[in-house]
Design a protein that fits this description.
- The chain has 236 residues and is α/β, with parallel strands linked by helices.
- The chain contains seven helices and eleven strands.
- The chain has helices at residues 48-59, 76-82, 97-104, 109-116, 127-132, 166-174, 191-201, and strands spanning 7-14, 17-24, 31-36, 39-43, 66-70, 89-94, 120-124, 141-146, 176-186, 211-220, 223-233.
- The strands form two sheets. A seven-stranded mixed sheet has the order 7-6-5-8-9-11-10, sandwiched between helices. Strands 1-2-3-4 form a four-stranded antiparallel sheet, with helices on one face.
- Helix 2 (76-82) crosses helix 4.
- The mean pLDDT is 94.
- Bound molecules: S-adenosylmethionine.
- Residues 36, 41-42, 47, 50, 70-77, 93-96, 99, 126-128, 147-149, 157, 160 line the site of S-adenosylmethionine.
Length: 236
């Protein structure tokens, strides 16, 4: 990774703290960084798990025509969804309006590529609200991908705790179309979340083995992290 000091591309203060986009280096090797709520959220050095979230979920869906991604970030999960030609529409819900404005302004290539795709609809606001509004069949998604926080045991935004709570997970699972898949990204293994999903989606009416945990080891500098994906598949 480039050791050059970062250049701030844009920054703003929000009710939740500072949000900023930064770049290290230039050209194809440039690394982009995102700060949300005053905390380093991610960079583009290694986005294998963000991409894996999209690929693993879409691999489990026969016809992923309509997809929801919660949390735009640097756009890598959304871009991996858009690589799939079966996807006809991608809704991306993002809490921070400034980030959406910077994406539309093309400040970062990955974000510009997301906003340029005509299948994308950007929604400003909390994905939790979007998931609990409307419950008609027309509002169902073939895939719902959540990467809004580090996981329930390590939250950046305390209010995101509700997304991982049983009531909200039940409502989220109810928004899956038949055969649809919910995928949740976490920066560490989350055994309580796995148990909760198994309680909600492991019983009658759900296919055998409908809930799985995928652990992805990632090495960063001299550290090793076990990132994890939680997948739940609805009956067809
Ligand atoms: C770690 S980033 C997502 C990274 C993304 N998967 C990628 O590939 O670049 C988390 C994003 O979720 C947004 N976010 C946090 N809480 C949210 C919520 N409740 N609803 C919608 N977006 C949220 C943050 O502002 C941030 O843009």
């Amino acid at each position: 990774m480039t050791q050059e000091p970062p250049v701030t591309l844009a920054r703003a203060m929000t009710a939740r703290g500072e949000i900023a986009l930064r770049r290290r280096g230039t050209g194809p090797g440039a690394v982009h960084e995102l700060v949300v709520a005053g905390i380093f959220a991610m960079d583009s050095v290694d986005v294998t798990t963000e991409v894996a979230l999209a690929r693993r979920v879409l691999a489990g869906v026969t016809r992923p025509a309509r997809v929801l991604v919660g949390g735009l970030g640097l756009g890598h999960t959304a871009l991996a969804v858009l690589e799939d030609p079966r996807v006809r529409r991608l809704d991306v819900a993002e809490l921070e309006p400034d980030l959406l404005a910077w994406a539309r302004a093309g400040l970062v290539p990955s974000l510009a590529a997301v906003t340029a795709d005509p299948r994308v609809r950007l929604v400003t606001g909390d994905v939790a609200g979007l998931l609990t509004e409307g419950d008609g069949v027309q509002d169902r998604y073939d895939a719902i991908l959540l990467d809004v926080d580090n996981g329930p045991s390590f939250l950046v935004h305390p209010h995101n705790a509700r997304l991982y709570a049983a009531d909200h997970l039940r409502a989220t699972l109810a928004r899956l179309a038949p055969g649809g898949v919910l995928g949740i990204w976490a920066a560490q293994r989350e055994p309580a979340l796995l148990d909760r999903l198994r309680d909600l989606a492991g019983g009658a009416g759900w296919p055998a083995g409908s809930v799985t945990e995928v652990v992805i080891p990632v090495a960063r500098e001299s550290h090793r992290f076990d990132y994890a994906l939680y997948l739940a598949t609805a009956a067809s």
